[in-house]
Amino acid sequence: MPPSQPPFPFADQGLLTRYGHLLDLPAHTLRISLQEGDTPLIPTPALADELGGEFELYVKFEGLNPTGSFKDRGMTAAISEAAGRGARAVICASTGNTAASAAAYAARAGLRCIVLIPEGKVAAGKLAGAAAYGAEVIQIRGSFDQALALVLAISERHPTVLVNSINPHRLEGQKTAAFEICERLGRAPDWLCLPVGNAGNICAYWLGFQLFNGRQGTGLPGLLGVQAAGAAPLVLGHPVDAPETIATAIRIGRPARGEQALAAAEASGGRITAVPDEAILYAQKRLARQGIWVEPASAAGLAGLEQMVREKRLDPRGKQIVVVCTGHGLKDPEIVTRELQPVVLPAELGPLEARLAG
User: Fold this and answer.
1) Does residue 267 share a domain with residue 157?
2) Which of 149, 216, 217, 224 is the most buried (most CB within 10 A)?
3) Could you tell me if 29 and 3 are in contact, meaning their C-beta atoms sit under 8 angstroms apart?
4) Closest by alpha carbon to 100, among 64, 140, 127, 73?
5) Cβ pair 36, 58 in contact under 8 A
6) What is the pLDDT of residues 150-178, one digit of tens each?
7) Which phi and psi (to 5°) does residue 217 adopt?
8) Res 10: pLDDT
9) pLDDT per position as a tens digit, 187-197
10) 130/175 same-domain check
11) What does the alpha-carbon distance between residue 297 and residue 249 come to, in Å, rounded to a whole number?
12) Model's pTM, two decimal places?
């Protein structure tokens, strides 16, 4: 059902107004929006050429959402539903992006926001965002998976709404990205490649493509979900108790929607694969050379596509392929800044001219 009227006369109508008629949200849902969505689908022919050419390659850059990640799509729906039923507090576990998004939308709605994060495992840019928006940030001496178990228990024992991707309203909001891709291309792409951490996003895209296809008959894409090799429970077939990867956003050993993600990939004719950190960082640099700076985890989709093409497990020729980049590079800049060694010159014209002359 479409959401009810916004609580503020100046409130942006955002995704819930644009796509509310396609989302399964309760009638009491309000519209808590930061003008999320409508992110660019960027053609990247140079990257396609590097992978052999003869196909169309696009990047869906979700890092241009209000808090810098795709999480805002689901959070506008989850917080809007929680506010509409009179909730006063929300809670989540996070590797960073969920924390910042939940904090921002809770602040917009006037709700208390509690965030649990694994100690020392969250990028500074994401932690800063959650704090800036006013969340109560609690670090635990444990993993994301342990933090998720704790917030689930709290939400069952106290009047606090869980806004992790276990919350079904999160997926309702996130599936709008599939609508935007289909609208831009005029159809669903042949393949969609994206990172997989807690596995909610790949499930949401599949729901969105199925719904759009049912209404428009545009076909369905193959889904290529990509995990980091050090945090790849869906590829290994068992939980990973101590996941490790430079891609902090997908450093998750027990994905909450793992089985649903595997089913979606199989139903699409796709698969879930894993790539090493080195491939992820290389893909991040290649995207940056095209003017698209993403956090490391966001580059996993491109790294997975390259691996599949190189190993001849995916033939891209004649296809339309979309790589989803889930978060902006400013979310996790340390990997770039720690290697930065700028040239230092005196404030004089001569040395500068000599430097520029090579």
Assistant:
1) no
2) 224
3) yes
4) 127
5) no
6) 999 999 999 999 999 999 999 999 999 99
7) 65, 45
8) 47
9) 999 999 999 99
10) no
11) 6
12) 0.92
